[in-house]
Specification:
Number of helices: 1
Radius of gyration: 15 Å
Helix content: under 10%
Low-confidence stretches: 1-22, 169-173
Order of helices and strands: EEEEEEEEHEEEE
Strand order of the largest sheet: 1-9-10-11-12-3-4-5-6-7-8-2
Largest sheet: 12 strands, mixed
Length: 173
């Protein structure tokens, strides 16, 4: 097992009302992966399908769907912005990572952990962030297979099990 000290670049963000309109972030996926996500806190949990999209320039997008296949949450991380579209509650937030409040820091830690997964060596890898977020990666044949992101302090956990690639238009309804 490899232990790597690496900042996950954990940033905090808060979803605010969707009354604000902003143009969508241009995003052209180069790689796509499909899997299942489990999110748990001490009082809430969510199980959803997840589509992980990565662009050629390193941007990352997560699309969570439930039974209908329609997105319930879309998170896009570029080099300078984090964009969160919480469709199930009609909320949207976009801004610079350095200016984000702390309400949903875990989702940011998750997308940052996924973004750096391409740099992980084969096997199991542990990453400990100075802010208290940890990640455990399983990489096989150069591909992310599982990812656990958690904070003991906040009692928040995310687990992704990646399965097969999907088409370039999946999750874009």
């Amino acid at each position: 097992m490899h232990k790597i000290l690496l900042g996950l670049g954990t940033i905090a963000f808060l979803l605010v009302s969707a009354c604000q309109t902003a143009p969508k972030i241009a995003f052209t996926p180069q790689t796509l992966q499909h899997g299942r996500l489990l999110w748990k806190t001490s009082s809430k949990s969510l199980v959803a399908d997840i589509i992980i999209q990565k662009s050629a320039n390193g941007d990352t997008r997560l699309i969570l769907t439930k039974e209908t296949g329609s997105p319930i949450l879309i998170i896009t991380r570029t080099t300078s912005l984090l964009d969160v579209d919480e469709r199930m509650n009609g909320k949207h937030w976009r801004g610079e990572p350095s200016r984000l409040p702390s309400a949903l820091i875990g989702w940011s830690a998750l997308i940052d952990a996924i973004a750096v997964s391409k740099h992980m060596p084969e096997g199991f890898n542990e990453v400990h962030d100075a802010s208290g977020w940890n990640a455990i990666y399983r990489i096989q044949n150069g591909k992310l297979e599982t990812l656990d992101v958690f904070s003991e302090e906040s009692n928040e956990r995310y687990r992704i099990a990646v399965s097969s690639p999907v088409s370039a238009t999946a999750g874009m309804r």
